[in-house]
Specification:
The complex is a heterodimer. Chain A is an alpha/beta fold. Chain A is built from 9 helices and 12 strands. Chain A is 35% helix and 21% strand. In chain A, helix 7 links the parallel strand 9 and strand 10. By secondary structure, chain B is α/β, with parallel strands linked by helices. Classes of the chains: A alpha/beta, B alpha/beta. Chain B: GO terms for molecular function: 5'-nucleotidase activity; magnesium ion binding; nucleotide binding.
Chain lengths: 261, 369
């Protein structure tokens, strides 16, 4: 049984124009509460939530009537979490997080919840959740606990071939379309800022194939309206050292496919 | 190419990219093999992409590999947004070759010879384009690389951030840039680096043999002797060198690169190609053969480094000698020599290391530059 609760502390975003991003409870909070209270401790994704907030602030500075903002939803994906709904609401308000809504679902129905809420990007620290959601057509990204927790003034998004570790993703046409829509939104948000001092930083990393592969990816992203700041063509060299320098908040690989099938 | 793929190599089938360039990519734990089927030719170009730790990685910036003066002007006069717009507008116009271009071509010629002799080896030159340019310029750079038939399959466009971290991640053996500040940063991190300048006059260099020339003090060796010379004069310098003839000089920033070249040279010698070796190294120093030069030679020998030709000029100008040698690149720590070489058409790169830098800037100030 899915229930959606509005966070009255936070001004609600425009249903049609906002870009809905769902983040799991397990990413935002630690599973234990602070001693003697029912307030959950903040987890690895705090800097991510804060930077999404920061992007919104910068967008509103440019245009106080801006509606194309990030609308952050906190979603539970396990029954025990669903049962903690009031503590979760309290914890969110206590920490002053800009979360617009809560979706209290379980492992059975969280995907349904994502679809009901028109989630355009689902962020989780759990690989299986990301995989399953993508297979059902919801663009997802796996948060890497190493980098997502680096504080940053910029939302750092990385485009690459393998964002979720399994090779045979089984992405559907529908999920590709949704991913492209999301990318188009990102591109539009970025266009509102100049090259310097932008709250959004997009990076392309191609691990396999050569420069022509990378060139195609740049053109493909450009055709979606996404302008990339940094590009790394690794030509087979290991990705790890470069990623640890880039420290992206999340990786996207859908919507501008490099290697089909 | 059916030979010798690792037994655990995974193949992905041939596939057509959205841009119409079919590629087959095979990967194994040790190497990535990229086959590109170019639609215009019936030849298949096959090249090994070595793992960074096995290759001699040479990182070049876009401003030294190509000529970008016009674009630089746009950037300086009209700002970054206009600069990027200009680049995108001219995306299909390839850049002209820059000062590092002949050097890079020569590295590729060596690779071809190495692959003939050692088809499985990863001990090759790996050329990486490292630029702090914005990725908007990426398509133009890739088009240019293709236009000139360069084998560069790795690059970093950092969009303004410092490339130093990436240089280290790529285990860079040599970094060439137009920006002295970046070069200094690299040197401070222990990466051999030098600043290159565009010259109008360029003498023709060999297409088949890579020639690299080095100054001695503060390039291959430390600047200790240079310090003595600058502070106490020539007599004291000679005295000091005589006294310390048997003491090895400390190493300088480019010693490692000479070493890397030496390792590749030995691979040719091992196959009986000493006379026909496509790599040749030169020492061009102001030291004198009879006196101060001895210490330099003893040091090189103790390091196990061979240098093919050593020119002891005893203070004579380096320009004419370099003009005879025609190196693809000459490394010197003093701008005076770099400029002198450039006047005679030699591509010279400045290594901003050691005591001479204090005097470089003083010279600049006094000559009112």
């Amino acid at each position: 049984m899915v229930s959606t609760v509005t966070n009255t502390d936070v001004k609600q975003k425009d249903v049609d124009q906002a870009v809905v991003v769902a983040v799991t409870f397990a990413a935002v909070f630690e599973p234990e509460t602070e001693d003697g209270s029912s307030i959950y401790r903040l987890g690895v994704a705090l800097p991510l939530v804060q930077v999404l907030q920061r992007v919104n602030e910068r967008l509103l500075e440019k245009n106080p009537a801006e509606h194309q903002l990030f609308d952050v939803i906190l979603i539970t994906t396990e029954s025990w979490q669903q049962q903690q709904n009031s503590s979760i609401i309290n914890s969110t308000r206590h920490h002053g997080l800009e979360v617009g809504r809560f979706c209290f679902s379980t492992e059975e129905d969280y995907i349904e919840s994502l679809m009901q809420n028109n989630v355009q990007l689902f962020l989780t620290t759990d690989g299986n959740e990301a995989l399953q959601a993508t297979q059902q057509g919801v663009p997802s990204a796996l948060l890497d606990t190493n980098w997502v927790s680096c504080p940053s003034e910029q939302l750092r998004v990385l485009f690459c071939e393998k964002a979720i570790f399994q090779l045979n993703m089984g992405s559907t046409e529908a999920s590709k379309k949704s991913a492209q829509n999301f990318l188009a939104h990102l591109g539009q948000m970025k266009q509102k800022f100049g090259v310097f001092d932008s709250p959004l930083c997009f990076t392309l990393v191609t691990s396999h194939g050569g420069k022509d592969n990378c060139c195609c990816a740049l053109k493909s992203l450009r055709s979606l309206g996404v302008s990339v700041d940094e590009a790394y063509c690794l030509g087979g060299a290991p990705r790890g050292p470069i990623l640890s320098l880039l420290r992206p908040h999340f990786l996207l690989s859908d919507g501008f496919s490099l290697l089909e099938g | 190419f059916q030979q010798n793929l690792e037994p655990d190599a995974k193949t992905t089938g041939p596939n057509t990219q959205p841009c119409g360039t079919p590629q087959v990519i095979l990967e194994s734990e040790h190497l990535a093999l990229i086959l590109t089927f170019t639609p215009l030719s019936t030849q298949i170009s096959v090249f090994l992409q070595p793992k960074p730790e096995n290759a001699v990685t040479v990182a070049v910036s876009s401003r030294v590999l190509f000529r970008t003066e016009r674009e630089q002007k746009v950037f300086e006069q009209k700002g970054v947004e206009e600069y990027l717009r200009y680049q995108i507008e001219h995306e299909n116009e390839p850049f002209a070759p820059g000062p590092a271009f002949p050097f890079v071509k020569a590295l590729e010629a060596v690779n071809i010879r190495l692959r003939e002799l050692y088809p499985q080896s990863e001990e090759l030159f790996d050329i990486v384009l490292v630029t702090y340019n914005h990725a908007h310029v990426g398509i133009r750079l890739i088009n240019t690389i293709n236009h000139h038939n360069l084998f560069i399959e790795r690059f970093c466009m950092t969009g303004g951030s410092s490339p130093i971290g990436y240089l280290k991640a790529w285990q860079t053996n040599l970094y060439l840039s137009a920006d002295a500040e970046k070069v200094r940063e690299a040197l401070a991190e222990g990466i051999a680096a030098a600043t290159m300048f565009m010259t109008e006059k360029l003498t023709e260099v060999s297409q088949s043999q890579l020639r690299v020339a080095f100054d001695g003090d503060a390039v291959l060796f430390s600047d200790e002797s240079e310090r003595i010379f600058k502070t106490h004069g020539l007599d004291k310098f000679f005295e000091h060198e005589k006294e310390n003839e048997d003491t090895l000089l400390d190493h300088g920033p480019l010693k490692g690169f000479l070493e890397a070249l030496g390792k590749l040279q030995k691979k040719f010698y091992a196959k009986g190609q000493r006379l026909d070796c496509p790599i040749r190294t030169y020492l061009v120093t102001a030291r004198s053969a009879a006196s101060s030069g001895i210490r330099a030679l003893k040091t090189l020998r103790a390091w196990g480094l061979e240098i093919d030709e050593a020119m002891f000029l005893a203070g004579a100008p380096k320009g004419p000698m370099l003009e005879k040698i025609r190196p693809h690149i000459y490394f010197d720590d003093q701008m005076f020599h770099v400029e002198g070489a450039a006047e005679m058409g030699t591509v010279a790169a400045h290594v901003p290391y050691g005591i001479a830098q204090k005097y470089n800037s003083q010279q600049k100030m006094s000559s009112g530059k």
